[in-house]
Amino acid sequence: MITRPLYLTLSLGAMLTSAALAGDNAAEVKTAGYHLKNQSTFEVAPGARAPFWPIGWRPTNAPTTQNEAPAPVVVITPEQFAVTSISVGSYSFALIDGRTYGVGDYLRAARPVKPAAGAPAAAASTGPALPPGVRVRVIRILDGQVILQAGTQAIAVPLRRATLSEKKPGDEDLLSLSDR
Q1: In Å, how far are 4, 83, 84 from 99, measured between CA atoms?
Q2: Residues 25, 27, 29, CA angle at the centre, nearest 5°?
Q3: pLDDT by residue (tens digit) across 130-155?
Q4: Which of 51, 65, 105, 157 could disulfide-pair with 78, CB 3.0 to 4.6 Å?
Q5: How far are the Cα atoms of 17, 82, 120, 121, 148 from residue 151, in angstroms, in the given order?
Q6: Whether the Cβ atoms of residue 73 and residue 151 lie closer than 8 Å to each other
Q7: Rounded to an integer, what distance in angstroms lies between the CA atom of residue 86 and that of residue 83?
Q8: Is 0.70 topped by the overall pTM?
Q9: How far is it, in rounded angstroms, from Cα 76 to Cα 55?
Q10: Whether 141 contacts 86, CB under 8 Å
Q11: Cβ distance 157 to 78 under 8 Å?
């Protein structure tokens, strides 16, 4: 029983398809004698925006070449960065050059600091002295060190602990007092 409606549906579809093809042949016969007199063209004036481009899109005038020179290699050293504090946990953080960074963050450029009166000009900025365009990223924060990456170079910057100031003469040691 199910096969009879299926056969009827298929045969009806075949008849409709053949009728549609016969109609296309009739249309070709009617237009066979028409010949194109003028072919239309569309040219954009130089410097004008083509109306088919997306709004705001401009073509680049620079030729694209595959053999561009590689970017200059910049060598970074652990001495260029000061890691003063590390917090290791589910979200690890490190204090690098006075700013807090997490894993995956890019180090920001050093802010210029106005030198104090009479101070040398070398003390005018803090942070890493890197050429412009070099991006340093925090790859990993471990206990005692931070791994930074610039381009293809990765370095481990150790934690620098603040040193205590030396005792000055005349400072008393509270633990060595004999009256305790």
Answers
A1: 80, 10, 10
A2: 70
A3: 777 788 999 999 999 999 998 888 99
A4: 157
A5: 62, 20, 33, 30, 10
A6: yes
A7: 8
A8: no
A9: 43
A10: yes
A11: yes
